[in-house]
Amino acid sequence: xxxxxxxxxxxxxxxxxxxxxxxxxxxxxxxxxxxxxxxxxxxxxxxxxxxxxxxxxxxxxxxxxxxxxxxxxxxxxxxxxxxxxxxxxxxxxxxxxxxxxxxxxxxxxxxxxxxxxxxxxxxxxxxxxxxxxxxxxxxxxxxxxxxxxxxxxxxxxxxxxxxxxxxxxxxxxxxxxxxxxxxxxxxxxxxxxxxxxxxxxxxxxxxxxxxxxxxxxxxxxxxxxxxxxxxxxxxxxxxxxxxxxxxxxxxxxxxxxxxxxxxxxxxxxxxxxxxxxxxxxxxxxxxxxxxxxxxxxxxxxxxxxxxxxxxxxxxxxxxxxxxxxxxxxxxxxxxxxxxxxxxxxxxxxxxxxxxxxxxxxxxxxxxxxxxxxxxxxxxxxxxxxxxxxxxxxxxxx
Length: 397
Description:
The strands form four sheets. A six-stranded mixed beta barrel has the order 3-4-9-5-8-7. A six-stranded mixed beta barrel has the order 14-15-20-16-19-18. The N terminus is likely disordered. It has seven helices and 29 strands. By secondary structure, the protein is mostly beta strands. The longest helix is centred in the C-terminal third of the chain and has 10 residues. It folds into three domains: 148 residues, Acid Proteases (Cathepsin D, subunit A, domain 1); 114 residues, Acid Proteases (Cathepsin D, subunit A, domain 1), CATH 2.40.70.10; 80 residues, Roll (Pdz3 Domain), CATH 2.30.42.10. It is 11% helix and 47% strand.
């Protein structure tokens, strides 16, 4: 769900309309290449790339919440690459790991070769198992900071330009983030009262909003709810983390207002969010509702509402976590008193089919779990016996 590799000092973020754009004296931005991408459940962006000198086609997450470029450790082993141990630590929601680096790698995206990259090597086995396909790496700040990047969710294509002047299209809004390797923006929250805070702008997070428990407690942002927050888990660097899932009454980004936004609350044990400098992060299940222009050279992000802008949010809740291992999909966690717990699911159950679908495709099965409302799930128990279980998908509303 999250990968956040450094702790950054933070600055105040300002937002202003496109009409106030100041001339930077740069030459016009020049088109370089484009390539298709896919959006997984939750909004995470996947694209294909190749390391120069290797024939394998690799799958990368394109993540504005990652301050560098990284490669999965198993992919590095498969390609015969040997990282050196770095002097820094990598922080994530699940723990802290020593940094391992590869120097001067080149990655081909479409017709573009991004050269001289310093690449971190991380373990992405848990991401691969949750998304149901191999995640070979992450393209973060090391990529986005070199170019002007357009992410068009309507066409599912990413367009790469040189740094330079650009005329933004009509009908959108220009945000001015602070860029200290990660973009940080101001948002306005309201549940019982209006509160402003700063958030990471994170296309690599498969959620709408995430706030730290310290921010939630100190701001008293969440008022009395008809339903208390539900317990859940999220996966990221180092493993899984326990969280709570609720809804926020209102959230405003620039002039754009959203209501009843699914919001995760988590205890930031490893100081990923760096509260009180930031309250949390804005994830791609909200950001994918805009076509984006990322212009880091001018500290600008331009948002244009797209065809998904008014798409309903996902309020489903099952309390079950599944992952793919060795060609089969397995239950890895069942939250106590959740719909999955009441349905009789157990950790270690192997899912054979959902509503008769035996395709073993993680994205399809995740869609079933998000849409429900009632599912028939055939599982194989650890003793080899099969059981047909019923799951009524709940709601956090």
